[in-house]
Amino acid sequence: MTRLSQKVISWILLKGENLEDELYGFEKNMLLDVKPKSKVLEIGPGTGINLKYYPKNINWIGLESNPEMSKHIKIKIRKQGINANLLNGSAEKIPLKNNSIDYVISTLVLCSVNNPLNVVKEIKRVLKSSGKFLFIEHVADEKGTFRRVIQNMTNYTPWRFFSDGCHPNRETWKIIEHEFKNVEVKKYFLKNGGFFTWIVKPHIIGKAEK
Ligand SMILES: C[S@@+](CC[C@H](N)C(=O)[O-])C[C@H]1O[C@@H](n2cnc3c(N)ncnc32)[C@H](O)[C@@H]1O
């Protein structure tokens, strides 16, 4: 059954698509330039906002745990004409074979999963040895900063409900660096976005190979 917070986040993400494109479009255009005909698994595709950034001739699999998102994703699949297979399930247990995927994509998802370490291990399992994990994630600010103090408190505020379980204080780069061999990761701060994005300004963007 769909939770109320899943309906709320689906609405928020849909309404925020223009802002999200403004904030991440440049980075996504560079990062999501995957090879033609490759098999791409995107975990937590949300409303399907990333579909327009891929080349059309790929085989895309979306694994989304919020059933409320599927209608939005299906509209984008039709619009982009991508060969797509949408699965409802969790990235904590990816229903795909070992070494079967060319690229796994995650944008703003590892903040929301229950156990990011399990998810990163699952990503590694399904990637081919030549495969790549491509990610953009918002992450914890440095310890001792005012923002980090606020990030640490969000679990006890309505943030948790309205973001459907997003944890802004995760040091996600540490998990990726621990699990993968060749990791290229860059930390950066969102430049725009105003008041509502202040808490999630610290980001990482990168690629990893197993
Ligand atoms: C903040 S949204 C980001 C959506 C999209 N990737 C984007 O960049 O706009 C996080 C998404 O991850 C999904 N998600 C959370 N936990 C998940 C899990 N364990 N497995 C698959 N998807 C998950 C949520 O339902 C939501 O669609």
Please characterize this protein's 3D structure.
This protein has a single domain (4-209), classed as Rossmann fold. The mean pLDDT is 96. The longest helix is centred in the N-terminal third of the chain and has 15 residues, at 17-31. The chain is 33% helix and 25% strand. The protein is globular, with a radius of gyration of 16 Å. 36% of the residues are buried. It contains seven helices and seven strands. With 210 residues, the chain is α/β, with parallel strands linked by helices. The protein has helices spanning 4-15, 17-31, 70-80, 116-126, 146-153, 159-162, 172-179, and strands spanning 39-43, 59-64, 83-88, 101-107, 127-138, 182-189, 202-209. S-adenosylmethionine binds next to β2.
CA-CA gap between termini: 36 Å
Task: Write down the overall geometry.
Answer: globular
Q: Count of DSSP helices?
A: 7
Strand residue content: 15-25%
CATH superfamily: Vaccinia Virus protein VP39
Topology, number of strands: 7
Largest sheet report: 7 strands, mixed
Radius of gyration: 16 Å
Percent in helix = 25-40%
What is the annotated CATH architecture?
Answer: 3-Layer(aba) Sandwich
Q: Tell me, rounded to a whole number, the average pLDDT.
A: 96
Give the helix/strand class.
alpha/beta
User: What is bound: which ligands?
Assistant: S-adenosylmethionine
Query: What's the CATH topology label?
Result: Rossmann fold
Order of helices and strands: HHEEHEEHEHHHEE
Count of discrete domains: 1
Poorly predicted runs are: none
CATH class: Alpha Beta
Major β-sheet strand ordering: 3-2-1-4-5-7-6
